[in-house]
Specification:
Helix 3 packs parallel to helix 4 and helix 9 runs parallel beside helix 10. Strands 6-5-4-3-2-1-8-7 form an eight-stranded parallel sheet. Helix 1 links the parallel strand 1 and strand 2. The chain is an alpha/beta fold. The protein is built from ten helices and eight strands. Helices cover 43% and strands 13% of the residues. Bound molecules: 6-hydroxymethylpterin-diphosphate. The site of 6-hydroxymethylpterin-diphosphate has 21 residues, from strand 1 and strand 5.
């Protein structure tokens, strides 16, 4: 039996995302892109209206909503065979996205950014992804340091999962994510991937997001974001082998094909 896995397709409705900023700021284009990702095998479409690239300052809730809501509504109207995730840290944005048909909240602050978000996710019975980040996007790549990066990230995710459970979010709706590239050096990212089984051991499905990230460029002769698909595939295959369950990627078709082979191989 091939190992089960799910692909989360990235739908960035932003002018400034690090790899595809501005490509899908227009709602009809973003909807068409999302539907293509669903056709290519994404089981979850992650719609985001705020870039979290290193150095970014963030946007207000009104602007974020104006970006993501028409896209979520357009996807829902087309009824693809995929769930909708909203990539936000704001309860006001998540609430309207859930009203519009999203069922999952992908929060890069692991429910620390907005005190109302955990209760909202619990009350609506939504799924959520709790991601590790050191500092904030503005500061996270300024000399990040850990004792042991895997131990520190695992302890953080364990504490945030406990907080989510205490807020009333059902255990089976909680996913955790080591936050590749969020306050991490190249060595930190590699150590987290190499020892991902230690994060998997927490018992929650693990999400990984290596897609097109800068450490892949560093390791492959300075490849730009558009040339990081080979590294994206390599790291996702390794992560699957180490037990990750959900793969957040921009290039769904090639990653889905690679993971299908990897999943059949590891069994
Ligand atoms: N990475 C990004 C954004 N959201 N969510 C999770 N759970 N895990 C990740 O690794 C992750 C994430 C950054 O990628 P992208 O959305 O392409 O860029 P930007 O933040 O510049 O929009």
């Amino acid at each position: 039996m091939p190992r089960p896995f799910q692909i989360m397709g990235v739908v960035n409705v932003t002018p400034d995302s690090f790899s595809d900023g501005g490509d899908f700021l227009d709602a009809p284009r973003a909807v068409a892109h999302a539907l293509r990702l669903a056709e290519e095998g994404a089981g979850l479409l992650d719609v985001g209206g705020e870039s979290t690239r290193p150095g970014s300052a963030g946007v207000g809730a009104e602007e974020e909503l104006a970006r993501v809501l028409p896209v979520i509504e357009g996807i829902v109207a087309a009824a693809p065979p995929a769930g909708i995730s909203v990539d936000t840290s704001k309860a006001a944005v998540a609430a309207r996205a859930l009203d519009a048909g999203a069922s999952y909240v992908n929060d890069v602050t692991a429910l620390r950014g907005d005190p109302d978000l955990a209760g909202l996710v619990a009350e609506r019975g939504a799924g959520c992804c709790l991601m590790h980040m050191l500092g904030t996007p503005r500061t996270m790549q300024d000399d990040p340091r850990y004792g042991d990066v895997v131990d520190d990230v695992r302890a953080f995710l364990s504490e945030r999962a406990e907080a989510a459970l205490a807020a009333g979010i059902a255990g089976e709706r909680i996913h955790v994510d080591p936050g590749i590239g969020f306050g991490k050096t190249v060595a930190h990212n590699l150590e987290l991937l190499r020892r991902l089984d230690e994060i998997v051991a927490l018992g929650f499905p693990v999400v990984v997001g290596t897609s097109r990230k800068s450490f892949l460029g560093t390791l492959a002769g300075g490849a730009g974001p558009g040339d990081r698909l080979p590294g994206t595939i390599a790291t996702n295959v390794i992560a699957l082998e180490r037990g990750a369950a959900i793969f957040r990627v921009h290039d769904v078709a090639p990653v889905a094909a690679a993971l299908a082979v990897a999943a059949a191989t590891v069994g």
